[in-house]
């Protein structure tokens, strides 16, 4: 599973209003991981899904950690990445990085988790319904993804909201009970999260996002010329004007096509704003930092080391980062500063939404 989360139990399963039991633990889980007592998310993960997001199984890396001491009491970042295969074995490498927007919204940690798996589900469905056999991933595919992603995220968040409201004893973290009871009927105060989606394959790819964070696109031509383009950067303004929520629309999601014509290699690195601002202030490029790590455990260790490594430049925030590439690249078993020993165990142009053109 190309996901390491050192702070929550990584427990997800098909939804109901019962507390979490008999759920999957994403490897590489360890003895200090736990199953939190919580209402299940409106997410189903089959064995096929677990294979698609197999730990480092396709050269894709992803990790999220709580980060340094801060006002938050939970990790509101989330990421998932891996590769989706169609019935002919053609693979789409993908990543989703989400960051719960905690200001004035309930259960943003769950919002980040629900949005991540909703976006993954849409990518899987579109890839297997015909996008894999298309000569090129086009603007039409990107527009369809925006529409379907917004629809699925909104529906999943509303389902999760209904389940949480059913639990009469449940209150969101960091909110007084009276505040929650007074405002819970408003649909616009639930599950706010930023989202960054990246996907790439033999016939191209896409990048889509709502909110801030970092996206770096590295391409190497068949002639060996390498170029790096920054698609998204966080600003010093912490106000988030775009995010997913029960009210999300396709127009809230900016998106563009990745053209892989005459390209030998593509790597896309995505991260939450905490990582992006830290690296920016430390004058370290996103692709350079990402290149230090050979597996997701090493990446998690690298994220955990950001405060000690960069000192005053380190944002007091949660951290998440994902790396995908095409063609698949074989990474060393472990690399990067402070990598731990292996642990065993359980478009084009701008669209109407102001989307970037990664082409």
TrEMBL record:
The lineage of its organism: Bacteria, Pseudomonadati, Pseudomonadota, Alphaproteobacteria, Rhodobacterales. This is Serine/threonine protein phosphatase PrpC. Residues 334-359 are annotated as: Disordered. It comes from Rubrimonas cliftonensis. InterPro entries: PPM-type-like_dom_sf.
């Amino acid at each position: 599973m190309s996901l390491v989360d050192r702070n929550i139990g990584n427990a997800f399963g098909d939804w109901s209003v019962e507390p979490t039991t008999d759920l999957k633990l994403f490897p590489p889980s360890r003895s200090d991981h736990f199953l939190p007592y919580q209402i299940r998310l409106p997410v189903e993960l089959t064995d096929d899904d677990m294979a698609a997001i197999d730990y480092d199984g396709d050269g894709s890396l992803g990790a999220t950690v709580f980060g340094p001491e801060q006002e938050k009491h939970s990790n509101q970042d989330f990421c998932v990445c891996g590769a989706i295969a169609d019935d002919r074995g053609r693979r789409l490498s993908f990543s989703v990085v989400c960051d719960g927007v905690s200001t004035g919204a309930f259960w943003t940690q769950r919002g980040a988790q629900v949005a991540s798996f909703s976006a993954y589900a849409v990518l899987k469905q579109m890839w297997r319904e015909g996008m894999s056999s298309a000569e090129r991933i086009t603007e039409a595919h990107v527009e369809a993804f925006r529409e379907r992603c917004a629809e699925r995220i909104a529906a999943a968040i509303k389902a999760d909201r209904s389940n949480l409201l059913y639990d009469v004893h449940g209150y969101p973290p960091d909110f007084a009970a009276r505040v929650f009871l007074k405002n819970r009927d408003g649909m616009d105060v639930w599950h706010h999260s930023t989202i960054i989606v990246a996907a790439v394959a033999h016939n191209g790819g896409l990048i889509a996002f709502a909110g801030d964070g970092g996206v770096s696109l590295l391409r190497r031509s068949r002639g060996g010329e390498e170029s790096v383009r920054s698609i998204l950067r966080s600003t010093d303004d912490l106000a988030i004007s775009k995010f997913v929520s029960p009210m999300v629309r396709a127009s809230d999601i900016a998106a563009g096509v990745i053209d892989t014509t005459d390209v030998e290699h593509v790597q896309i690195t995505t991260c939450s704003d905490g990582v992006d601002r830290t690296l920016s202030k430390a004058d370290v490029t996103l692709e350079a930092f990402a290149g230090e790590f050979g597996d997701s455990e090493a990446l998690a260790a690298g994220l955990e080391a950001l405060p000690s490594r960069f000192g005053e430049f380190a944002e007091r925030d949660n951290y998440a980062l994902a790396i995908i590439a095409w063609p698949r690249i074989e990474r060393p078993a472990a690399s990067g500063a402070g990598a731990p020993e292996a642990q065993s165990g359980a478009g084009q142009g701008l669209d109407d939404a102001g989307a970037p053109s990664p082409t």
